[in-house]
Amino acid sequence: MRVGIIGGGVGGLGAAYELAKGGHQVALYERAPFLGGLASTFNVGGGRLERFYHHLFLSDRTIIDLLEELGLGDRLIWKDSKVGFYYKGRIYPFSTPMDLLRFTPVSLVDRVRMGLVTLYLQRVKRWQRFEGTTASSFMRKWVGRRNYEVVWGPLLHGKFTRYEDEIGMPWLWSKFATRVASRDKTFKEKLGYIKGSWGVLIDALEGRIKAMGGEVHVNTSVTRVLTDAGRVKGLAVQWPDSRQTQEAFDIVIATMPSFALPRLVDLPADYLARVQGVEYEGAIAVIWVLRQSLSPIYWLNISDPEIPFLLVLEQTNLVPPEEYGGRHIIYTANYVTREDKRWGMDAEAIVEEYLPHLKRINPGFDRSWVEAYYLHKEPAAQPIMKVHYAQHMPSARTPIAGLWLASMSQVYPEDRGTNYSIRLGVEVARQAVAEAKA
Given a cut of 90, is residue 188 above it in pLDDT? Predict the structure, then answer.
């Protein structure tokens, strides 16, 4: 069969690789000048770095197994996680049960209460029991007012801004399930990274797809999904030289944000409502290249409404600074709505706003530490998964025969992530072919 893939993120690459392995003719189209989407990389200090931070959990079996299959298993590095919590001018370690017991911003009773709720959520297997419950109401009720004010409220607000009180509890449950599955026999959480960056995986997938006869096109836009009598027929493609052609396909898999699909094809009202009903937040990340380390923490959650970012992630507390010419790399990250003023700000303006707050995290910080900075923005980075999301989520099979959707809005209840995007791309590719043969 001849299959067209719209989108060259990891989900699209995973689908294309799976299909090429099965002997199908595959053509992948990516409008950006690079592959990988949110996992794409650029050069920093002689190394490659993701535009938006990425790591692996031990439970991310799709990517772990794929790396082994591609002969890249030896590229995986695992380290004990270093998670922290910034509250009222102080960094608290927040990686182990003992760290929780030492977390003095809340009382001992509250710490025990939070620990018990954590244990309960880690043992729940059926997330469906939480479908009608918001994460905020569940946590307010069970961890208590003080724990919510100090920990969970700021985390939910930082992640979801105005949607804080609408997010379904299954989304938060998946976070607990992922984290417990990434602990080793000593109960230490392990985080993984691909030595050389996620670009190593992206390059390998592209190379394998091409070696098996597949096509991978960047700087190439799909302008229309072509249909006839309710069945997909192909794609209208605009090439880098401005040529426009019509390419015939038996199957088309779209790996774009859900809301973008109606721009390419007319959909029946019910399915149209589903794909347009999924809301997204965007992500804004500033990458700082520093001459010194900001803190010993890899993942630092911020619980301070005066600090204009929700997270400080120090990449070089997971990956050695030598990967980037001896420099220390940090991300300051936000999830934001379309109305956020930072969409209209350039890198210099955002950096000037953020600089004083880095000194709050490390009083010794000085702007002379900053050797370079980079700004990356993505308007569709985080699907908003509200209560009863499973009832409204668009199915992978669209009402148009042969047209399939594989979007990060469909990995529910798991959160967005490279592992789940690749898994979804592979699963949809298999299902599409199986049904086309039936």
Answer: no
Q: Average pLDDT, stretch 64-75?
A: 97
- Contact (CB, 8 A) for 198 and 72: no
Residue 376, Cβ neighbours under 10 Å: how many?
Answer: 18
∠ at Cα 247 (428, 402), nearest 5°? Answer: 30
Q: How many CA atoms lie within 13 A of 165 on its CB side?
A: 2
Look at the domain 96-185 and name its fold. protoporphyrinogen ix oxidase, domain 3 (1.10.3110)
Domain ranges of the chain: 2-54+198-279+385-437, 96-185, 280-383
**DSSP labels, 205-260:** HHHHHHHTT-EEESS-EEEEEEEETTEEEEEEEE-TTS-EEEEE-SEEEE-S-GGG
Structural contact between residues 17 and 209, judged by C-beta atoms closer than 8 angstroms: yes
Contact indicator for 306, 314 with CB cutoff of 8 Å: no
Select from 3.40.50.720, 1.10.510.10, 1.10.1740.10, 3.50.50.60 the CATH code of 2-54+198-279+385-437: 3.50.50.60
Just give the CATH number of 280-383: 3.90.660.50
Work out whether strand 370-383 and strand 280-290 pair parallel, antiparallel, or are unpaired. antiparallel
Yes or no: say if 224 and 216 are a contact pair by the CB < 8 Å rule: no
Tokens of 315: 């990449």
Q: Which amino acid belongs to residue 124?
A: V
Question: Taking 70 as the threshold, does the pLDDT of residue 149 lie above it?
Answer: yes
pLDDT at residue 255, as a whole number: 97
pLDDT of the residue at 72: 97
Angle between helices 169-181 and 135-143 (to 10 degrees): 70
**Dihedral angle over CA of 32, 286, 56, 296, nearest 10:** 160
Q: What is the pTM of this model?
A: 0.94
**What distances in angstroms separate CA 365 from CA 89, 356, 370, one per listed residue?**
14, 9, 9
199: tokens are: 């670009």
74-112: burial string, b at 16+ Cβ within 10 Å, e else: ebeeebebbbbbbbeeebbbbbbeeebeebebbeeebbe
Taking alpha carbons only, the member of 114, 106, 91, 88 closest to residue 146 is 106
For the sheet containing 56-57, what is the strand order?
56-57, 190-194, 76-80
